[in-house]
Design goal:
- The chain is mainly α and 430 residues long.
- Helix content is 49%, strand content 7%.
- It has a 3-stranded antiparallel sheet with strand order 1-2-3. Strands 4-5-6 form a 3-stranded antiparallel sheet.
- α6 runs parallel beside α7.
- The protein starts with a strand and ends in a 28-residue tail after the last helix.
- The model has no long low-confidence stretch (mean pLDDT 95).
- Bound molecules: s-citryldethia Coenzyme A.
- The site of s-citryldethia Coenzyme A has 21 residues, from α16.
Length: 430
Amino acid sequence: MSDKAALTIDGKVYEFAIFTGTEGEKAIDMTNLRAQTGCVAYDPSYANVGSCKSAITYIDGEKGILRYRGIPIEQFDTEKPNFVEVAWLLIFGKLPNKKELAAFSKKLTENAAIHEAMKYHFEGFPITAPPMAILSAMINALSCFYPQFFTIHEEDVFEDAAARLISKIRTIAAYSYRSSRGRPFIAPHPKLRYCANFLHMMFSEPYELYQVDPAVEDALNLLLILHADHEQNCSTSTVRMVGSSRANLFASCAAGVCALWGPLHGGANTAVIEMLQSIHTGNISPEDCIKMAKDKNSSFRLMGFGHRVYKSYDPRARVIKKQCDKVLATLGVNDPLLDIALKLEELALKDSFFQERGLYPNVDFYSGIILRAMGIPVEMFTVMFAIGRLPGWIAQWREQHLDASSRIMRPRQIYIGNKQRDYIPLEKRG
Ligand code: SDX
């Protein structure tokens, strides 16, 4: 392929450079399109737009490939999956050695508690407050206690900010759950690893420590790893957009939480379980669900299916589906919703409507089944996605922050409103 693209407008030919990514992706450099041609490119959902160059995550939607810093996602499904080491990999670009991992884990342990003053914020939320609203508010509130992170220049200061955020998001999430149930806050345990400590803060009681099943701890590590980054998805693009104004890391991640909340994005894991539950309680046949999903006049969508980038099986869904059987067997849980999900997948994968549109199960289709089996309430499912995605947001924010060429993001538009007209005083208006 040529390294130039030619555009003809009103008989004049304009040339633009084409550059190639690591895996052969091609991009037309349009950074001077408007200056050269007077035109802007129009693509309202940015489906054809590269907003940045990034070295963090690679996705091939046609082949169902996902790699973190070059490592295929499937390779993190090890004997003892470790979310903390993957967080380090995404943020700093390499797997940590023993010394680095021990030091970072120590920082997470030392920073798991939240400021005592922050605990009073929970009393201000109604008991029915959506946990994602609390999470976004509390991440922003967290920044008030760390003004030293409002502008980050040195690497060690950045690592401190990342450690505090990654550690405390668990505590905030667990406390929002405890508060919603009228239960006392459980302090983080200094001897527990990342995921086990979260489950401890969620489910221990003053009179009885929650016994973390190692299989559940491993499954939660893997689930968070699978959610950790996904290149320029809606919430990550939001983090970059906010960060491009030089807003601080906490404010940028709080904005990411808000974007992730949407049912078309991170909110889908909650929507999937609610869909499966309504199918189960309504005794609706999977066949009828498929019919409704294909019916343009029906508002029913097969939540957890389809993806803007994957037009083949989401590799994360494949790993999570395998984990479902393992976790449910370990916990002795027989979940009828899993049977419904498996039947829906079987029917959809052989249906031309889904095949023609490249609609396959995505990361959200099976994740809720595992979270449910762990005892995580459905209203917390998207919060779990946010805990997993936080290292990705931090990595992407840092990459942009370190890029001297990055500028404030400011898309243009095509105006279709009124031509110029005059102001009419109130007394003269009809
Ligand atoms: C995540 O971007 C990321 O990387 C996101 C994510 C990440 O890790 O950050 O992977 C996480 O957000 C996963 C996606 C979770 N969302 C859902 O599961 C919600 C259900 N899925 C959809 O609403 C939809 O598939 C999207 C939002 C995921 C993608 O939307 P697109 O790319 O805008 O696709 P579209 O809406 O234009 O649909 C194309 C066609 C349409 O039919 P036609 O008009 O061509 O006839 O496919 C149909 C749609 O009606 N379609 C579906 C469908 N998804 C798309 N039909 C039935 N059920 C569905 N789920």
